[in-house]
Design goal:
Radius of gyration: 21 Å
Helix content: over 70%
Structural class: mainly alpha
Shape: elongated
Number of strands: 0
Largest sheet: none
Number of domains: 1
Number of helices: 2
Amino acid sequence: MDGNFVGVGAVVMSLGIPMAAMYTFFWVRKLRSEERMAAIARGVEIPMQPELSESARSRRSGILLVAGQSVISRPSFSSAGSSPMR
């Protein structure tokens, strides 16, 4: 390998992670609406969930970004003292 694997991995991750996030968001939203429709069909009253405020959304995003960065950077910190691969 002449180093192209890192570039391919970066492209796959930069395109794959947002696509996975969008798919997950869609899937969770679909499941919630199906659950709500089933409850309405049975006659159960379900209160609407309030939307998160802007500060709560940004706080949650910040926590997720910091946690994700710590998971991503951990292997590079743990291998800093090891010898390079040949």
